[in-house]
Amino acid sequence: MAVRLCSANYPLYAVTLLDDSHILVAGGGGAARTGVENAMEIFELQGEGKNCVATSLHKHSTDPRAVMSLAAKADGKGHLVAAGMDGKCQLFRITKSKEASDEGEQDVDKENEANLRKRKGSTGNKAEKSAEVTEQSSDYKVESLACVDTDFHKEEPFQKVVRFSRDGDIIATGGADGHVRVWKVPKLEKKLDIKAHLDEIDDLDISPSGNKIVSVSRDYHAYVWKVESGKREAELHWDKDVPEKSYRIKAVRFGTSQEKKSTVQLYTMHIPARRERKPLPCYLTKWDAMKFVPVKTQSTGTDLLSSLAVSDDGVFLGVGTNSGDTMIYVSWSLQKVHRVSEAHGIFVTGLCFLKNNAITAELTKGAETALVSVSADHHVNLTPLRPRFMVSVWFAVIGFLVLVVVVMIYLGQQGLI
Description:
It is built from five helices and 28 strands. By secondary structure, it is mostly beta strands. The chain has a four-stranded antiparallel beta sheet with strand order 1-28-27-26. A four-stranded antiparallel beta sheet has the order 2-3-4-5, with no helix packed on it.
């Protein structure tokens, strides 16, 4: 089952990891005067008994616009955060306030002791109520560095996706007007403007080396672009025996291995282009990221897919669905290893993995990996993957005991015992 980390008082559309134990979520009600706020919010993950919960540390208003896309990158001073709001991209820097940093340096034990008292004094509904606090601490400072128009659709400008390069020097944006635009950080000076697609861009990603961008669109095409020149290098041709334009790529992600940094894979998520009386299956596909040819394709079932994420070590894929399910797959084999049905009340809008390290293992009580998900249902959930070898051991033990019982019954029937 999924763990409810916390809930916000506004619909959530994006989530990103800041560090080992802090996440940033964002969303809102938009410009309409509905009374629903628009905000970005920093949460700290904490272990509480057998569970992991999230406590709100700082909320930053983004009125009058809701944040629909989000990306973050550590820059040595804090975290750069790129937020897509309507047809604009705004770049923020999030830092800890000097007072909070000084206090932390002077006495870390006091902070740990305070956190411990806070957890002990909390109620069982803490995860549900943590985001209802409007008065936030001054531990964090959110500074706006730049804001530019990134989408120029004539009727309804909408920046749908933003990505940082691995080195943080550039960001790429895509949206309703079909253009891929590349911007230099931190002033958001335009480096490239590519008329990439004839319809809106659903997703894009920058290669780990920073020299290629893959964009996917509702025009049924997926292209590879050279960052330096803006020229098209390749097109992704999906070798599935299906009628033309019956599927489109919904999401795309690069993944790298921690053990072999040179090993790069590309992953895509395919959904039916139209609703049919008999639902068609959705698919995950792994691609050779050098030749851009499909390597393996796996059906995920008929539940429509909505979100995709890759773990930092490249081992796992996270998948969200329109019905609110969360799933974890092994990246190299595309084997499903965990699924939580209806983790959210409605479609999953954003996913990110926690880092696979000792801190995450402690927070999640030994989970092999953990997937954070958000939805317009206001909830932030955690889907942990328990070590698979432990499950196998339990099955082996149970199987052995059953075998012993069967043998004893048989020997008794034969009069041998």
